[in-house]
Amino acid sequence: MKTAIVGTGYVGLVTGTCFAEMGLNVVCVDIDKNKIDKLKDGIIPIYEPGLEELVKKNYSDGRLSFTTDLASCINDVDIIFSAVGTPPDEDGSADLKYVLDVARTIGKNMTRYVLVVTKSTVPVGTAALVRSTIQKELDKRGLEIEFDVASNPEFLKEGNAVNDFMHPDRVVVGVESEKAKKLLSKLYKPFMINNFRIIFMDVPSAEMTKYAANAMLATRISFMNNIASLCEAVGADINMVRAGIGSDTRIGKSFLYAGCGYGGSCFPKDVKALIKTASEHHVDLEILKAVEKVNAEQKKILFRKLSDYYHGDLAGKTVGVWGLSFKPETDDMREAPSLVLIHSLLQAGCKVKAYDPIAMNEAHRILGNHEAIVFTDDMYDAVLDSDALLLVTEWKQFRLPSWSVMKKLMRTPYILDGRNIYDADELTQMGFVYECIGRAYNR
Ligand SMILES: NC(=O)c1ccc[n+]([C@@H]2O[C@H](COP(=O)([O-])OP(=O)(O)OC[C@H]3O[C@@H](n4cnc5c(N)ncnc54)[C@H](O)[C@@H]3O)[C@@H](O)[C@H]2O)c1
């Protein structure tokens, strides 16, 4: 079976590479020539643990290839996955421009049966739109060619994407025909050895499942952040509360961590898009509106705490920032809480010394050259002569710093822990002022 994956980003490259690893013949397609040229030269355009070795191995074994020319491979493959971006439009809805571009190219060039599968996160009704877009192009050409559309939303997590794809909890597939079901069952068969479940359903339900999953996870995070604020006010400790409720099997332990807000390419845009879809159907998703609002406030929390500590006088202060990517093990900076924080710090007249183990280039690209930001080569350089250290992203290497070295390097030993990873008692005993999220302090 031959497969094309259109869109060679976080989802497309991982999908294509993992299918190739299972023995399939895969061509990865992208309109970004620079990206495709890099991949052909063995340079992986994103940071994703374990991906580089797999790409190089499957490319050199000839199962994985790269091209910018979708038209040239449409009639050589049985299945085309569309994994292009679906960024938010100005009104919050998912912009389907790229998805429909791919559909048009398929309709303009197909000469035989093909199964078109949407892997991107798309609103309910998109598969029908993809179908009518392809059909229109076939009608223009006066051709009657059978094809199927299906929905196979992706649930991988950046930072653990290869493992998630190889060992998913489940694979959700929305189909409209037995033929499509058979083809996708065959495609995912090699993964069955790992005993995961493939859940077949109708297409609209599959499209909705992805949004509902992300909305639920975002809700858990905002819920815990909301409860964390109350913990601070009443003198409770959110970490204890998390341990207490997470051990209830009805609740479970995942996604209960209070912090400085969720970011990334998925939760913010998917929550927005779901609210928009609902409003188009006259349904008011009040819970998700609150989830968004709480998250927007939470992204400001570190700045607010810092400002409170210095009684609003931040001009001229030097602030070290550890962690810039939206979460550990990725270089993705989309909607990262660090961006909101750094913009506020700069506005308040602070000097920012920023460090991230992987996302430095991406951060530099997004934040540009600013005289008040220094991107340091080392995590300790970021705290030299600083008036505070703000931990934004909980990379493993930040977990056990040498506190004695830190104490000597910092001008003011003030640690503001946005991910609750440090031991308050240990730091206080060492003479640091320590604050985190969801716990009351006696300054
Ligand atoms: N990133 C994640 O963790 C994740 C997880 C699950 C689902 N998703 C969803 O998957 C989709 C892709 O996300 P991503 O993070 O991989 O995006 P991305 O921005 O990393 O990659 C998208 C790629 O598509 C390419 N592209 C755009 N138009 C094209 C066209 N006409 N032909 C060929 N290539 C084209 C772009 O150049 C880009 O390389 C989105 O809908 C996203 O919501 C993402």
Automatic annotation (TrEMBL):
It comes from Coprobacter tertius. It is an enzyme of class 1 (oxidoreductase). SMART domains: UDPG_MGDP_dh_C. Belongs to the UDP-glucose/GDP-mannose dehydrogenase family. It comes from the Bacteria. Residues 320-424 form the UDP-glucose/GDP-mannose dehydrogenase C-terminal domain. Pfam families: UDPG_MGDP_dh, UDPG_MGDP_dh_C, UDPG_MGDP_dh_N. This is UDP-glucose 6-dehydrogenase. Its EC number is 1.1.1.22. Pathway: Nucleotide-sugar biosynthesis; UDP-alpha-D-glucuronate biosynthesis; UDP-alpha-D-glucuronate from UDP-alpha-D-glucose: step 1/1. It catalyses: UDP-alpha-D-glucose + 2 NAD(+) + H2O = UDP-alpha-D-glucuronate + 2 NADH + 3 H(+). Keywords: NAD, Oxidoreductase.
